[in-house]
Amino acid sequence: MNAFASDLDRTLIFSQRMLAAYGADGTEECIELLDGKPVSYISPTTKAILKQINEDMFFIPVTTRTIEQYKRIRLFQEDIVPEYAITSNGGTILKRGAVWKEWTLHVQELLQHSTPLEEMIKKVAALDDSKWIKKIKPGDGMFFYLILDTERFSPDRFIELRELSDHLGWQVSLQGRKLYFIPKILNKWTAVHHLRDELGLSDIYTAGDSILDAGLITNGTYGIAPLHGEVVEDSLAFNKTQEAGIKASEEIVESVQSRYRNVGAKR
């Protein structure tokens, strides 16, 4: 059995901000609401192909979203319901919507060897001299992210935070106005690798846009990133789409579907 393990935001689904930045044709379907307001959208083409992929193999959403944020996406609760999903940047595995407790316990043991969450938050908050932090949001007790005042947040500050995090065994990823801080021990591919062993998976197709997806993309049988991705800016070694924005998601699922069908035909 094969699998398609993919990041969600800015890879398969998109915010209004992303649609405005890269263009949209008005056919996008809203798949997530927050306080009654539209939050995320998907291309009808991407949705249709993704539904077929989910029927042909394991489709495994792999996201830095918390459990609550993931379950807010009604597409994956109603229309396309994956048997497995990975949230919290690899910190949680959901099986039919329920937390896989054995994996969570394993992750908690790993985190004992990392700089504690509370200590990291304090060190980062202490650097907020120009009030560039709007909010500090914890993520399932494993990581945190900042909502930034982008006008006050400088490139030099980002470099400083990246160096601080690296020294303490954490990593950072800037995604729009959100700046994520994740323990290096916590990564998406480790969780996917666990599922590969548990499920006896053969080929694993992967996709993602951020630095946090680098391991996921490089370790997959075939990995691809959208042209607009942060990970593409950091390295030119990744397979990437020709298009950016929501059109990139169509390219991604089309390429995955084409590859596994070609492999199946050869076999």
Written account of the structure:
With 267 residues, this protein is an alpha+beta fold. The protein contains eleven helices and 14 strands. The chain has two domains: 3-109 and 186-266, HAD superfamily/HAD-like (Rossmann fold), CATH 3.40.50.1000; 114-183, Hypothetical Protein Ta0175, Chain: A, domain 2 (Alpha-Beta Complex), CATH 3.90.1070. The strands form four sheets. Strands 5-1-13-14 form a four-stranded parallel sheet. A four-stranded antiparallel sheet has the order 9-10-12-11, with helices on one face. Strands 2-4-3 form a three-stranded antiparallel sheet. A hairpin with a 2-residue loop joins β11 and β12 (178-183). 41% of the residues are buried.
Keywords summarizing the entry:
single chain, 267 residues, alpha+beta, Rossmann fold, Hypothetical Protein Ta0175, Chain: A, domain 2, 4-stranded parallel beta sheet, 4-stranded antiparallel beta sheet
Count of DSSP H/I helices: 11
Strand content: 15-25%
The structural class is: alpha+beta
The tally of structural domains comes to 2
Q: Short description, anyone?
A:
The protein is of the alpha+beta class. It is built from 11 helices and 14 strands. It folds into 2 domains: 3-109 and 186-266, 3-Layer(aba) Sandwich (Rossmann fold), CATH 3.40.50; 114-183, Hypothetical Protein Ta0175, Chain: A, domain 2.
